[in-house]
Amino acid sequence: MKSIKALSLFSGGLDSILAARLIMEQGIELIAVQFVTPFFSYEILQDVEAYQAEVKRKYGINVLVENISPGYMELLRKPVYGFGKNFNPCIDCKIFMLKRAKELMVELGASFLVTGEVVGQRPMSQRRDALNVISRDSDNKTVLLRPLSAKLMPETEAEQKGWVDREKLLAFGGRGRAPQMALAKEYGISDYPAPAGGCILADPILSKRIKRLYAGEFNFGIDDVGVTDIELMLVGRQLLVPQGFFTWSAGGEGDSGFWLIVGRNEEENLRLEGLAEEGDVLFYMEDRSGPNILLRRALGALSAEQEGELFALAASLVVRYGRKIDGGFPPEMVTCKRGETSFKIMGEAPEGDSFRAWNL
Ligand code: SF4
């Protein structure tokens, strides 16, 4: 008889760890896959091998890591099943991952898929009807096994064919975490992340920013939103300057705004420098400590005069967010770096604090 292999979706959360372990306990070879996007688990890409070693050491699980960002960015533009409480398209997200997992399953010669989903645990994606939709739309109705809730659900192929002993699967349901914690203890697993952390699309504050980006409130189209935009969303202080602020603007309602990102410390300043791309301008003072400010993708469609006004505003904010001198913010030369070229303009701090209303 050929040896049976399973592929499990792995998020690093306790449920996905336990689901994988339950299947491994039955003597089945299991490979886990951790998908990453700039919305969750992206930091893993900084050192994939270290992450794989950590998962193996802590939980005994072999994990692959795959970056699914391009397709995911696309999904977010118009998820079929909409959004949850924040900007989280959980049902489409699961379908998308499971479709890719099915392809991987075939590539790796695995026979079925495993997830740590629990009936009734999450309001949007783990209601029974949502779980059915996820299996159906990802084309995984027969091959997707959810070991933690298996006894509350119809048999899947893995049980019917006797690859997995259904009796040893579980009937967890609802929002409580006590059974999971007891099982973790049984397996000797104590070091696992808190539930529901990690996805910024479900974060009430960060998701609001991303929602505005995808709502077209920025001065570039949502088709142009890329991974770097999302990475930038998570750095520093964020300002969206309404076009109505500028003398040349017609000031129409719904006009898109210009995006400025203000570094709040040395680390964020360096990060902004590293993430700057063609079409961005970086502003900073050479002779006084203060922030780097990144003006994102504002060039191209503006006249020299319009650019001048925008640059003057960015430079004024560099001074305003910079170090105080004698209790104030006297004018200072600000460098504007655009690709390989740079020039300087005088930055004069704005009067008053009205710019704070632009905080994203
Ligand atoms: S919380 Fe985030 S990662 Fe989890 S299912 Fe929802 S959108 Fe996907």
Automatic annotation (TrEMBL):
InterPro entries: NFACT-R_2, Rossmann-like_a/b/a_fold, ThiI_AANH. Residues 257-324 form the NFACT protein RNA binding domain. It comes from Desulfotalea psychrophila (strain LSv54 / DSM 12343). GO terms for molecular function: ATP binding; CCA tRNA nucleotidyltransferase activity. This is Uncharacterized protein. Residues 5-148 form the Thil AANH domain. Keywords: ATP-binding, Nucleotide-binding.
